[in-house]
Design goal:
two-stranded antiparallel ribbon; 6 strands
Length: 507
């Protein structure tokens, strides 16, 4: 923006600088006509305005910018993170399998026993009594094994979660990934548009250099003619000094426009990520501004509809809304019991389920179904769901705001395209008129039938017409770029490095 402001400043300042020369009296009757220079030629095709074979084009700069932009790279890393979350969500579909292995060493202690060892014996009650049998210890002991080994595997199948949580969570993660993908497309479209605009503004600055140099040549020719008129006694010394001042001012403007062209070339290199350019060859444009034609867009209604269907910003917001709604469903699943099936296989030495314990490996298993539910979750669920619902409402409001903003952007872009079409036609006619007026003014001045003011005014109008024609050509191309961006036509999915193919000048 600073560069463009500076270009506008140059346009506004170096044209009036030519008009420093003031009116001088016409040549007196009967004076000898001075020697004059030839009529200056119109603006010529110079190297700065020619297309160089193999040079850069706006499309190449835009694609390169979309490929190498740091903003794009940052959004791509966010997409990579979103893809990782999708993988993590997919893993929830698998039954939860856990494996456990352990070794435990118990401290030594005396094993409890009943009697002197043996087994427990049930002694019946005497006949005719109602007392139950008496369990009598008959020489029984409990062996204690100090080394304990355990191998255990458990599988849990979250039956209810498959319907209430897992599938919804996975969908939420895929929608978040889609939102991240659209954010990448948004960053690429922005970089593409900025790269193309930087290229055309660079061409504008190069053209301004040509215009400034031509204006300097015109005013130098004017100075030669004024000096001849002064030698013939037809103009005053003040007129000569004013034109000399205009020549000095034109030198400043040429230098200023060259500096601006270098600055905007640097902006193009930044879009290309071409380093600092210190070791690089000069950039050359592979397309010229000559031959620019007006772009005729479709209706405003169809353009708006296309923008609403293609702009990645809207797609990203829509995907985020879907993701949050699925997340809300996951949260509300806590209102219902969790039902799961489980199975456990144990291989242990000793196995705790075997009595009495024995110093040997023994397998056992268990299986069942369980349901868990906590009433306390109802309060937390309500609060968390309200939080997500608020986020959904906020994003939906953002979508409406973005849609209105895009509507305005498309309208402005349409207006810019239409204005550029009118400007292209008008500036062409203006330039033709200004060139003819300048030619006539020079012939009259050289014939001693016009004042220096008339020629100065013609020079000023010609320079202005040249700048207006240049700006109209650039503005027409940038207007097309902005309309494509507003309508989402630049929202490409990918730009590979192999598709760039940009080159520098080989000179």
């Amino acid at each position: 923006m600073r560069a463009l402001s500076r270009l506008a400043f140059v346009t506004a300042t170096f044209v009036p600088s030519i008009a420093l020369a003031q009116a001088a009296p016409a040549a007196p009757a009967g004076t000898t006509a001075p020697t004059v220079s030839a009529v200056a030629p119109p603006l010529v095709e110079k190297d700065l305005l020619r297309a160089t074979p193999g040079g850069l084009t706006a499309e190449q700069v835009g694609k390169r910018a979309a490929e190498t932009s740091y903003g794009v790279k940052a959004s791509e890393e966010s997409l990579r993170a979103a893809a990782g979350r999708v993988d993590a969500a997919w893993a929830n579909f698998l039954p939860r399998l856990t494996a456990k292995a352990s070794y435990t060493r118990l401290s030594s202690f005396t094993a409890p026993s009943l009697g002197s060892g043996g087994s427990l014996v049930a002694t019946p009650s005497p006949a005719g009594t109602v007392n139950p049998p008496v369990l009598v210890a008959a020489n029984f002991s409990f062996p204690i094994i100090l080394n304990n080994y355990l191998l255990e595997a458990q599988i849990v199948v979250p039956i209810s979660d498959y319907f209430l949580r897992i599938n919804e969570g996975y969908t939420a993660s895929t929608q978040a990934q889609e939102a991240a993908r659209q954010d990448v497309a948004t960053a690429r479209a922005k970089a593409l548009t900025e790269g193309k605009s930087a290229f055309y503004n660079w061409l504008r600055a190069r053209g301004a250099v040509v215009v400034a140099e031509q204006a300097r040549e015109d005013v130098k020719t004017h100075l030669v003619d004024v000096k001849h008129q002064f030698d013939a006694g037809n103009v005053s010394k003040a007129d000569v000094l004013r034109v000399e001042s205009s020549v000095a001012a034109s030198d400043v403007q040429v230098e200023r426009t060259k500096n601006l062209a270098e600055l905007l070339e640097r902006q193009v290199r930044i879009a290309l990520h071409d380093g600092d350019g210190s070791d690089s060859k000069p950039l050359s444009p592979g397309e010229a501004l000559e031959g620019t034609t007006a772009y005729i867009p479709g209706t405003l209604t169809t353009s708006r509809e296309e923008a609403w269907s293609k702009r990645p910003e809207l797609k990203s917001l829509s995907a985020n809304v879907t993701a949050l709604r699925k997340q809300s469903n996951v949260i509300r699943a806590s209102n219902y019991p969790q039902v799961a099936a489980f199975g456990t296989a144990t291989y242990a030495n000793p196995n705790q389920r075997r009595v009495p314990q024995a110093n040997e490996w023994f397998p056992t298993w268990a299986a069942g179904v369980q349901a868990t539910w906590s009433p306390n979750d109802l309060v937390a669920t309500k609060g968390n769901a309200a939080d997500v619902d608020g986020k959904i409402a906020a994003i939906e409001a953002q979508m409406q705001q973005a849609k209105e903003g895009i509507d305005l952007e498309v309208t402005q872009a349409h207006q810019g395209v239409r204005e550029s079409a009118v400007a292209l036609d008008a500036t062409k006619r203006q330039l033709t008129t200004a060139e003819e007026a300048y030619r006539v003014a020079r012939e009259l001045f050289n014939a001693g039938r016009a004042t220096p003011t008339l020629l100065t005014d013609a020079e000023t109008e010609l320079t202005k017409a040249r700048l207006d024609a240049l700006n109209a050509q650039v503005d027409a191309r940038i207007a097309k770029v902005r309309l494509d961006h507003a309508m989402g036509r630049d929202a490409v999915e990918d730009y590979g490095a192999s598709s760039i193919g940009w080159q520098r000048s080989q000179q």
